[in-house]
Amino acid sequence: MGKITFYEDRNFQGRYYECSSDHSNLQSYFSRCNSVRVDSGNWMLYEHPNYSGCQYYLRRGEYRDYQEWMGFNDSIRSCRIIPHTRSHRLRIYEREDYRGQMVELTDDCSSLQDRFHFQEMHSFNVLEGCWILYELPNYRGRQYLLRPGEYRRYLDWGATNTRVGSVRRVMDYF
């Protein structure tokens, strides 16, 4: 079980809304989100309703301003708690629909290009655990949550292109 509190203004001021589960549309609770306090759990915040738009991974801590979570603006319209798992397994494919070379990961990788020499990653199969994809190496750039399941092409994980630079397991100590 997790707990997150959204505040309309910076530094935990203004109207607020406490949440302890997935929420597909937060628009009726606040008009903007400028600070967040995560009391427990790992969360993915989304810029638009129904878990779409830019994604932001937040773990336990205080975020006094949306720039602290690398936000592009003060729009948070949906959120998901990321379930805790002990084991992690991810298959990465060079081409769409699980074609081309395949590699399997069980731990974090700060640079997929350096480690596997893939120029692009077109499909993923999450066998165990939850993972965060980062657009750039060293866990930077746009973020995407991968939950257990199949991602046959980049649109399935909400990306606008096949650029993936690094991946990280979602862990409680993360």
Automatic annotation (TrEMBL):
Top-level taxon: Eukaryota
Keyword Zinc-finger attributed: no
GO molecular function, one term: structural constituent of eye lens
GO biological process: lens development in camera-type eye; visual perception
Residue stretches making up the Beta/gamma crystallin 'Greek key' domain: 2-40, 41-83, 88-128, 129-171
InterPro entries associated with the record: Beta/Gamma-Crystallin, Beta/gamma_crystallin, G_crystallin-like
Keywords attached to this entry: Eye lens protein, Repeat
Pfam families linked to this entry: Crystall
Gene3D superfamilies named in the record: Crystallins
Keyword rRNA processing belongs to the record: no
Alphabetized PANTHER family for the sequence: BETA/GAMMA CRYSTALLIN, GAMMA-CRYSTALLIN D
Family to which the UniProt record says this protein belongs: Belongs to the beta/gamma-crystallin family.
Task of the protein: Crystallins are the dominant structural components of the vertebrate eye lens.
Protein name (Swiss-Prot/TrEMBL): Beta/gamma crystallin 'Greek key' domain-containing protein
Species of origin: Sarcophilus harrisii
